[in-house]
Amino acid sequence: MPEVSHTLDTSFVIRLLTRDPLPLFRRAAEFLGQWKTGAPGFLVPDLVLAETYFALQHHYSFSKEDALSALLSFTRHPAISVSTCADKTLALPQLSTAKPGFVDRLIHGASERAETPLVTFEKSARLLPNTIVLKV
Fold first, then answer.
1. Residues 60 and 109 grouped into a single domain
2. What is the extent of the structural domain holding 17?
């Protein structure tokens, strides 16, 4: 992961992606706009991506596809760093209809980084390596 100088939170990312409210969007855009090529960038943790994904849908009426597209575009900014898992997951084709979905894949990525199996009841997770799907 490239060197980072700050971690961005959900409220910051939401303002950039929704432009709402406008004064906060302008301030967030100004802050991001101060970044210079070659300078340390900004980390966006998986939890922030997951919260933003749900907030865009439930508070701003984005479709799953539009929320994921907005996150993908945002994470492609040269100053933005995300986990390898988030980067690869956001690049998956048809992610908005994929099973397991975006957040489940982020959770699986965290279990891989921890070098532990993921234990779940989510049947679709059987497609992911090192995953135990419990049956009732």
1. no
2. 4-94
Q: How many distinct structural domains can be found in the chain? A: 2
Bridge partners, residue 67, by sequence:
none
130 and 117 in contact (C-beta within 8 Å)? yes
CA–CA distance, 37 with 78 (Å, rounded to integer): 8
- In angstroms, rounded to a whole number, what is the distance separating the alpha carbons of residues 55 and 62? 9
d(CA 108, CA 110): 5
Would you say 109 and 85 are in contact if contact means Cβ atoms under 8 Å apart? yes
Tokens of 51: 């919260």
75-134 residue pLDDT tens? 999 999 999 999 999 999 999 999 999 999 999 999 999 999 999 999 999 999 999 999
Whether residue 103 sits in one domain with residue 86: no
pLDDT tens for 31-56 read 999 999 888 999 999 999 999 999 99
Give the pTM: 0.93
CA distances, 95 to each of 67, 69, 86, 111, 115 (Å): 11, 10, 12, 20, 25
On whether both 37 and 68 belong to a single domain, the answer is yes
